[in-house]
Write a structure and sequence with these properties.
The protein has 131 residues and is of the alpha+beta class. The chain is 32% helix and 24% strand.
Amino acid sequence: MINIEYFTKKKSDLASSKKFLLERIQNKESEIFVAENNKNTLVGFVQLYPIFSSTKMKKLWLLNDVFVSENSRGQGISVLLINEAKKLCKETNACGLVLETAKSNDIGNKLYPKTEFSLDIDHNYYFWDNK
């Protein structure tokens, strides 16, 4: 079982998550790549959403989720999944991939530079929460 609470600091809601993902897939609003081990067990995934850049006048992919099960980490699976995301970016003629992660996400903050992502220190990130 994936402990999503550890990463998101939010309570898991499996039923709502399944519904949300099914809607994204049915509406073709998301791309998901999965990794399986040699026993055909899901060990990781990456999920991307298309967004658009008006300044570059191209599609841009939001890399929203990358996850590898705890017992499968350290095997390069996250790098393979991110490489699939890069391939999608090239195949769709998108201008790039964008992602965000918490400053406290030590794993992600080591992974992303290793996979050729650059930390944007020139721009501020703002968020409005519609509670």
